[in-house]
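Example S7 (structure tokens).
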């Protein structure tokens, strides 16, 4: 068997420190079995490469307050003092160099502005009753003027000529609408789904209560299937999943990472079968591959209900629009940032602004503020204390 030499863990800042601590203990245990000195070494002497940007989304702690989030990060773990930090200095996504080596000033300014947003150093104002100034001015060039039908406006801006180009893979692949909340994502996807031509097929899930999660024996009476079908959880497909051929979808689980089918991979549906969805991969390392997706059992892990729901369904969701959190790792040529409500957690504005490969491809639609002092302003939340011990 080949020996593992290196473990690479991407997006480390959004993983709770306990996961790394568990990995540390496990590796010490396994590798120390034959060589006892490895028990004394960090990660059992294995090299672990953590990648990530603390300006981006931090661990999600349900109902957690700011200190809970900051304390859950890897740089608040005992392990951190054993880490060497290497800093990347050049943005490869928005390449500010012309082929002849000269600098494109517009792109350089954009990169610096996005970094300042991420570092929380763009001048900000506070509204009445707020402790911390967090409202920043968005440059005029990115603004879409708000209209009576904001969804129509953001769709028209991000997906121009959608009726003619709705089947064009390149067109679909290079753009997305980003927004902070799942209900806005669903509203935009439903609006665009109706515009997509072709027959809609609805796949209903099989739902049940996970028996190990509750002591109640009479589950069928307390939680009938009809009730379970009405429940929706973020990151879980709905009971009634409506799909059409040529709809862009996103995977909600790691289905088969070696084949490029990871949580967040975008695909386009090529055929809707009875037991499989045929799809073509649009993003990641296996672009262009034709794959089959089958139903899997997903469970609700953070639920307000006193039970865990088991849902057997295709782990996919339409992705004309996606949440900002889900867009992390994506690179897009055109981004429509829809902010009917401002962002609500650290790094979300930075992640949204830094998805785009060219400043010309970024458009932002915000709800118009009644107070003229806050015209074209939106909230930028940065937990600066997270950066304290990075270098
Ligand atoms: N060495 C390189 N040469 C050319 N392009 C590159 C290089 N490295 C990265 N890129 C391009 O830059 C973009 C961002 O790369 P990548 O997704 O690896 O960055 P990242 O730091 O993980 O991004 P993020 O964490 O913000 O999602 C991609 O479009 C990628 O193709």
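Recovered sequence:
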């Amino acid at each position: 068997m080949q020996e593992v030499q290196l473990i690479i863990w991407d997006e480390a800042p959004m993983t709770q420190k306990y996961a790394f601590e568990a990995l540390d203990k496990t590796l010490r245990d396994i590798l120390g079995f034959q060589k006892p000195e490895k028990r004394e070494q960090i990660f059992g002497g294995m090299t672990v490469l953590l990648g990530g940007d603390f300006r981006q989304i931090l661990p999600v702690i349900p109902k957690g307050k700011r200190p809970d989030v900051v304390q859950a990060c890897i740089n608040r773990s005992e392990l951190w003092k054993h880490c060497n930090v290497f800093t990347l200095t050049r943005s490869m996504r928005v390449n500010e160099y012309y082929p002849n080596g000269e600098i494109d000033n517009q792109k350089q300014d954009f990169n610096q502005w996005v970094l300042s947003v991420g570092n929380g150093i763009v001048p900000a104002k506070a509204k009445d009753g707020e402790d911390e100034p967090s409202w920043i001015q968005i440059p005029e060039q990115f603004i879409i003027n708000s209209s009576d039908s904001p969804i129509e406006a953001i769709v028209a801006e991000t997906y121009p000529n959608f009726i003619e180009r709705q089947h064009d893979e390149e067109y679909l692949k290079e753009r997305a609408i980003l927004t902070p909340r799942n209900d806005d994502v669903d509203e935009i996807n439903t609006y665009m789904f109706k515009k997509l031509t072709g027959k809609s097929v609805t796949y209903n899930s099989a739902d049940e209560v996970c028996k190990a999660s509750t002591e109640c024996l009479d589950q069928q009476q307390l939680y009938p299937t009809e009730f379970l079908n009405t429940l929706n959880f973020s990151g879980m497909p709905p009971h009634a999943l409506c799909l059409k051929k040529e709809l862009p979808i996103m995977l909600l689980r790691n289905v088969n990472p070696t084949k490029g089918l990871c949580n967040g991979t975008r695909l386009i549906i090529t055929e809707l079968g009875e037991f499989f969805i045929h799809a073509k991969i649009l993003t990641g390392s296996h672009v262009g591959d034709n794959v089959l997706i089958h139903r899997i059992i997903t469970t609700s892990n953070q639920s307000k209900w006193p039970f865990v729901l088991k849902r057997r369904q295709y782990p996919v969701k339409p992705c004309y629009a996606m949440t900002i959190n889900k867009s992390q790792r994506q690179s897009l040529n055109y981004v429509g940032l829809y902010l009917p409500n401002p962002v609500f957690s650290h790094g979300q504005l930075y992640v949204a602004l830094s998805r785009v490969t060219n400043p010309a491809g970024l458009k932002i639609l915000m709800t118009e503020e009644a107070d003229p002092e806050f015209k074209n302003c939106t909230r930028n939340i940065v937990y600066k204390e997270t950066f304290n011990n990075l270098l």
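Notes on this example. The chain has three domains: 6-82, 105-180+324-391, 188-320.
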